[in-house]
Design goal:
279 residues; mainly alpha; 73% helix; 0% strand
Amino acid sequence: MSSAKRSPWLLLVSLLVYCFLYAPIIVLIVFSFNASRTNVVFEGVVNQGPCGPFYWYCQLFRNRDVLDATRNTLVIALTSTVISTIIGTMAALALQRFDFFGKRASETALYFPIVTPEIVMGIGILVLFSAAFGWINSLLALAPAQRLTMGLGTVIISHIAFSIPFVTLVVRARLHGFDNRLEEAAMDLGANELTTFRKVTLPLIAPGVLAGSMLAFTLSLDDFIITFFTTGPGATTLPIYVYGLLRRVVTPEVNALSTIWILVVLIVVGISQWFQTRE
């Protein structure tokens, strides 16, 4: 049986699309080795100090603001990922296995944070926190130093709310092919519900749970808009920090930071895709 002839135009269009998508990333990586401080024209590969061509990367790791922003970003991403994964997995199990009042409305509500523009969601969360904090501060008559304000906690709560629908949908997709007879067999052999979930259900849906958690982690790492509206003093993340740098002189240090961040996100996305396609 002869194979269909592949059109050369299809190959050309595919190459152009990939060039359009990845050329800016390649340029960004190349300019992280730029000898010029203005980062407008590439003047050759930098070769300064003991770091040589990796001079801007060394400067980056000596920057205390970058290290603080990295710590905040990882704390927010890890905390929101763990909590959203637990809640999202529980929600997926409930929606897949049980019939209850408001189930259809709950399924529809899962798509609202996904399809709603982030700037709209960010403004809504900002108004919610401002109103709630103002009411609590007035009710308890808190001193200025004790008043509730925007900070690391509000960013974490916002990221949890944003990530739960993604985790739920990924885990529920995994549950569509789940064989309930395996759980019934475990219970017939004497296992209770907790033991059945821990030794039968969770290992079988683990690829979906891990894929959902990786997706939530990636979304939290890269989020800018929601974080911008809910952040406060001492809660600057890397996307917010990079945005602040763009208001001043853009040096290749920004390119070095972006390059490292791209590599981290690609690794996380690759792991997520591997778990999602694993049988």
